From TrEMBL:
Protein task: Removes the formyl group from the N-terminal Met of newly synthesized proteins. Requires at least a dipeptide for an efficient rate of reaction. N-terminal L-methionine is a prerequisite for activity but the enzyme has broad specificity at other positions.
Cofactor remark from the record: Binds 1 Fe(2+) ion.
Protein name per the record: Peptide deformylase
Catalytic activity: N-terminal N-formyl-L-methionyl-[peptide] + H2O = N-terminal L-methionyl-[peptide] + formate
Any one GO MF annotation of this record: peptide deformylase activity
Origin: domain of life: Bacteria
Active site: E147
Higher taxonomy: Bacteria, Pseudomonadati, Bacteroidota, Flavobacteriia, Flavobacteriales
One matching Pfam family: Pep_deformylase
Cofactor: Fe(2+)
Enzyme type, top EC level: hydrolase
Length: 190
């Protein structure tokens, strides 16, 4: 089932999410619905707060990037990179910072360069509640960091300079007011 994505301005996007346990009601259905929602919006990541749930759960699927010429050197690693992260904790961020033009399903029509470290070490549970500690780099680390921010109540626009924040402020207000055109379901705060 495709769920509405919460728009910028919704308070759930600013709350630090709560941990869940393996008995969380209908977890498998929720994860399936999140993948349906993300795919329906042509996204590569989605966090539970974006569908109105303040729980520490996010999903990513970067397989669509495997066909992008910018990633041809890591295409084999990307083509099957579809993961569920429950109760994730980033343990370490390392490597050089690099800029990348990020966007967000909750903030449509806004894209800006964000600096992030190139490598992360993260501890998380998968959809079967098996614990993992993994290291990710390149675009995979970037997408994980972006989604991880969501469960911490942080949006990519929080990483912008004061000047850039001022420039996008009007666009963000329009989104909060529902004055945006998207081809997926959204729920606006006003």
């Amino acid at each position: 089932m495709i769920l509405p994505i919460r728009a910028f301005g919704d308070s759930v996007l600013r709350r630090k999410a709560q941990e869940i346990n393996k008995d969380y009601p209908e977890l498998k259905t929720l994860i399936e619905n999140m993948f349906d929602t993300m795919n329906g919006a042509n996204g590569i990541g989605l966090a539970a707060p974006q569908i109105g749930l303040d729980i520490r759960l996010f999903i990513i699927d970067v397989s669509p990037l495997a066909d992008d010429e910018d990633y041809e050197d890591i295409a084999d690693e990307l083509k099957d990179f579809k993961k569920v992260f429950i109760n994730a904790q980033i343990l370490e961020e390392s490597g050089e910072e690099w800029k990348f033009n990020e966007g967000c399903l909750s903030i449509p029509e806004v894209r800006e360069d964000v600096k992030r470290k190139s490598t992360i070490k993260i501890e998380y549970y998968d959809e079967n509640f098996v614990k993992h500690t993994d290291t990710f780099k390149d675009i995979r680390a970037r997408v994980i960091q972006h989604e991880y921010d969501h469960i911490e109540g942080i949006l990519f626009t929080d990483h912008l300079s004061a000047l850039k924040k001022k420039i996008v402020k009007g666009k963000l207000q329009k989104i909060a007011n529902g004055d945006v055109s998207v081809n997926y379901k959204m729920r606006f705060p006003k």
